[in-house]
Amino acid sequence: MPEKRHEEIGGEVVEAAAAGDHGAFTAIVRHYHPRLRGLAAQLMRDRQLVDDALQDVYLQAYRGLPAFRGDAALGTWLYRITYNVCMSQARQRQSERVDVDPDTLAGHRDRPERLAVQVNDLAAALADLPPDQRAVVLLVYREGFSYDEVAEIVGVPRGTIASRLWHAREALRHSLAWEPGGRQSGEEQS
What we know:
Rna Polymerase Sigma Factor, Chain: A
């Protein structure tokens, strides 16, 4: 089961930011930036593109915050903006492969039992996934969003999320040479 994602920022901060309080908006950016950067880094080719994408994300969030109704959590709304900006830029570049920086997976180093492969192997396997599948894997397994929340972030039906996740897991199994039972092919049984 995915680990629960991080806490949401307080509603009073959101209200202040929506009313134009720059300090409150800065607090929102500081609170969510590491996770939004992690998602953007997994979807984009290099740091410059990540920085550019995040500038667009924060500009869209700043402009859109007064209209934010709170139908979803603020974090979900920000992830959706990040996903849309990154996917739009990826489509514009029509990139086939995105290099994944293993340092962006650092949050998993303290949970080795969740992954039976080295971080570099996983990073390479994730990089080979199409961006829409990679995003779903990261949002469900790294960020801990439910299928319904990911569907809201990505803007597709829940069934599409389940399908993308299934295809991504199959591709990862193949890429990482996983066998049923969780062993990598070639591993000896004890």
